[in-house]
Amino acid sequence: MKIQAIRGVKDILPNEIEKWQWVENTAHTVFARYGFKEIRPPVFEKTQLFSRGIGETTDIVEKEMYTFEDRSGEKVTLRPEGTASVVRAFIEHKMYAAQALLKLYYLGPMFRYERPQAGRFRQFYQIGVEAMGSHNPAVDTEVMIMLMDFFQTLGLIRLKLQLNSLGCSKCRPEYREVLRNSIRRHLSDLCDNCNQRYEKNPLRVLDCKVERDQEIATKLPKTADHLCSECKSHFSEVQSLLDSTNIPYDLNHQLVRGLDYYTHTTFEVTSAELGAQNAICGGGRYNMLVEEFEGPPTPCFGFALGLERLISVVPFDKIGKTGKCPDVFVLCLGEEAQRHGFQLVHKLRTDGFFVERDYDGGSMKSQMRKANKLACRFALIVGENEMKSGKYQLKDMSDGGQVEIPAETCVEEIKKQLKKTV
Ligand code: HAM
Prior knowledge:
By secondary structure, the chain is α+β, with helices and mostly antiparallel strands. It is built from 15 helices and 16 strands. The longest helix is centred in the N-terminal third of the chain and has 20 residues, at 14-33.
């Protein structure tokens, strides 16, 4: 029986990997400019970390986690997201001792047992960012600015930044009550799911995807109208700082997010080019999570973006080829030249060139065809005559021009020729 990949997971094949690497490298470069450092937590953790961290009544914890018992009977879960792991590591390694704002980011696979569809996978990749240790609204704004800077570097336009505030432990309970009372009046018109969750998690009714429910949601009380004075001033400062940078955004009173740890600012970035799963990125402030795991009071702000969705909308055709093509194709004719070519390829590679060759010992014509197919910049031809004379033929694959170069100084010569063409 042929074994195939599991439903909802996919291979990232070599012909796509250049895009992935380019996007990932751009993240490393942009985030480093803002002082963020990478952290690599494990891909599985104790189940409790996620059930407590993300919230028992969330969809993720209720029905989407890959949980199993390991051989010692311990309940472990493949991480459905990265924030809880970073918080665990932050406390475990006493990273708070540094006192300054800790700026971290991570990149890697996440696992959620969701119904697979376009843009929704059971293993998907996220790049996540967590700024830990400040309640300053400038942190919320700076992190969102960094995200938009990253998107801009990738050539992305037509993205929509949506913003909301979910209040804090002081004002949220009262808002939840007001909301629950209001929802109760609409129960017969709302979907089964909302009927089930309005008691435990009434905020989720606000972002139900059922069309009829969405219409009702617009009439329900808004968090913005029930914020305490501290939340109100935090949110208005975030907006005014964003205004000062001219980054456009919309207020979305239905934006509540699917994880329970959020307080204050929440946000999402969506793309009009994606279908139903149009959220590229989501995040917000989570001021209580570190304390909930018995760490010191540490207000945090972060986000995570879905790499599959992001990569599907990056305009690679407009921003040019991100993948590098080989500098040189070493074309060897004859058995002895093949042996000589082996050393030559090695020498050129250790000198920093991207080198390809033919491993089948084909004719000049078939090797040229391969060099062309790989879009090599130059072909370096080594045959019997070349070995006798100590001179190689260097052929420019873009215009067919050919020059003779001495074997001893071929590295310098090729470098010179490459420079001419940059
Ligand atoms: P999230 O909204 O659950 O937030 O996920 C962030 C992003 O991951 C989504 O906007 C989406 O692009 C991508 N994503 C989520 N599920 C899937 C899936 N099944 N298939 C493909 N892509 C998916 C979080 O994970 C939070 N930890 C973000 C955060 C960090 N908040 C504060 N810090």
